[in-house]
């Protein structure tokens, strides 16, 4: 214990000696790290999205290959022009938004009753159920997506069971379809929907429902008027936790989707790795970021509010 | 009311079947004799044997564990600082930007984080090349930096909620007795939040171990992580060895989560007892 204290004192003295108040050291270290490795990279992405694609190492240049004077120029038409003019990009952009939105609604439809049931269970059961929801989150995401290949394939578990029961005679094609991607996203992101909803529903004041019942409100109406409305922050937080990462999802459409299931994250990845067109990949990243600024701010506001509420 | 609770119970049961059926089927078919993963051909553990002979998988697992341990340690150090700052320093210039940068990586699509970090490393290498004629390249260091950057957010969120629920009276007592703030932090605050630090480390470790996309962007050709090896196998279709590997990972995780939940509950109870005793002792001393 004594040695421990000595060490803390030495650290304080050292920081003060080099002119840094310990309080500022605590702020500066994570601040600098995040600025350098999270904020600045976005500016570099922005810069490279205006570059020209070229065959070199790294495969981009700020010098216009078509101009004679070789001056460095800002190039807006190249990669962004491609994004606007090629249906592949617009299509996969819109498709990603659509699929992420539908998946978010599916997560909410399944997650809300589950979170509600968990929050109203006995306290001892509650903790077990909570652990059961969190447990898959700790196992590998990749492996959980892989598990669905075995279930959804034409000769997979689901089709085999249905066929042996005589319900169907020919396998239902499910693998490599949009349906498989929806299942994959719903499966992978469900815990992210359930947890904030559960946290919200668990601390809800049940006396409000009793009061409503006393005043003659029917349970189902009370549920929609009181419970759903009070849990709105949880619904928003869960939806953002699902929608934002799902828009840029790469692994799920790549493993479960068909060649036509284009989502913008997959397009970006292929543009970067297969076509080695870094400026276009950067422009896609910027386009996705522009789309996500709104949802990110909503998410951020919820996080701040949650902190104020706890204080 | 009765009808409503039946509906909720049914959804809960179906929901948990949905969450666990794929995992159960994965485990069952890892013991399948047949190479056709989804057709049962008798019980066998041969895929586990073949898996343990696969040097590529073993090397990748070792590399992943190393990367995970290093980045979880760094991420937790940064996360403790960031969580502490968010709770205790409510007013400083640039706080909004700071809290935004802490929480945004939690939801940022992985392809975006991946490409932006890679372009940073490439630009940095261009500068190095220009001034010193050397390059860092990509590999272990860049993967660690990338993993620290996005896992520290998880750590910061865990630590933030722990610091929020922290009873300040012990720290104030130490301060009254003349301890300097830094000493109070290391001697009083850190030991109290130790269980949260452990769970934050485990969370960062698991997330680092699990990451594919950000690693794909930022890893060099020399070494591959376990998810990279799994992904290259899975892309070619079902592979019973992947089922065996998945079963091993799932068992380790399940044991780990159960043990740590048990341990943390005990720690929590011990902590509350200690605090009560300290408060009682302080009251008597007065």
The proportion of residues in beta strands of chain B is: under 5%
Rg over C-alpha atoms of chain A, rounded to the nearest angstrom: 26 Å
CATH topology of chain A: MetI-like fold
Q: Label the overall shape of chain A.
A: globular
Mean pLDDT of chain A: 85
CATH topology of chain B: MetI-like fold
Specify Rg of chain B, calculated over alpha carbons.
24 Å
Terminus-to-terminus distance of chain A: 32 Å
> What is the subunit organization of this protein?
heterodimer
Strand-pairing-aware structural class of chain B? mainly alpha
Overview of the molecule:
- The complex is a heterodimer of chains A (311) and B (286).
- Chain A has 311 residues and is mostly helical.
- Chain A is built from 14 helices and two strands.
- Chain A has helices at residues 2-17, 22-49, 77-85, 87-119, 123-138, 141-152, 157-164, 178-202, 207-214, 219-230, 232-247, 251-256, 264-273, 278-310, and strands at 52-53, 60-61.
- In chain A, α3 (77-85) packs across α4 (87-119), α8 packs antiparallel against α11 (232-247) and α13 crosses α14 (278-310).
- Chain A is globular and about 75 Å long.
- Chain B has a single domain, classed as MetI-like (MetI-like fold), CATH 1.10.3720.
- By secondary structure, chain B is mainly alpha-helical.
- Chain B is built from eleven helices and no strands.
